[in-house]
What we know:
The chain is of the alpha/beta class. It has helices spanning 2-26, 45-53, 64-73, 92-98, 108-120, 154-162, 185-201, 218-223, 233-236, and strands at residues 35-39, 58-61, 80-83, 101-105, 125-132, 142-143, 166-172, 209-211, 228-231. The two termini are 15 Å apart.
Amino acid sequence: MAEDIKIQIGRNVKKVQERIEKAAIRAGRDPGEIDLVAVTKQKSAVVVKALIDCGIKRIGESYLKEALFKIDLLRDFPIEWHMIGNIQNGKEKKIAQAFSCVHSVGEFRTAVELNKYAGKMDKTLPVYLEMNVSGQDTKGGWLAVDHENWEDLLPEISKVLELANISVVGLMTMAPYSVTPEDSRPYFNRLRKIREFLGEQLPKGRIAGLSMGMSGDFEVAIEEGATILRIGSALVGPRD
């Protein structure tokens, strides 16, 4: 059973990597500058192990309890664990302890708490600041739909950048669900423009990365400048 899973995931990894390369070349980009996080929420440790065997070392999880179980089970393997899901109040300590990177820092309070616990562990935690570029209530992050209101983001983002034990490596967003990949383009384009705006207004911030693009739209995300993709079902199949 485990060997069958490994074979199928190996095929999936190869297909996704080929698609990433083609999309990058189409966009005039270097495929080597685009990182991949395999999303394994609601998947077993066997699936994670198969991904590792296929050369995937960045693993993304959304649910803390499930993630901690797998992190403990696979503690002897060379995995870089990424938190990509909603961060509940009071969970920041465990997240700061267990994860190598956090993609879903969507408010100032969360950043402050992660910074506090990272400081207690004498570590610097890489984070992506989540932007709500669609205005949907179901999406987390700083509300950043209207260009005219982007200036309102500056005071809090500036304070986040001053925190000593988190390093803001980029911005993150989720496009609204659609079966048409092209529908995601305006949202990915908006996130890229927000990064450019923040770079102009906060030049010392060094916000370089863009965490955007999932199984259904990652090629569009690459064309719009994604530097790290969060891909689940295209690699590991639909959720169990």
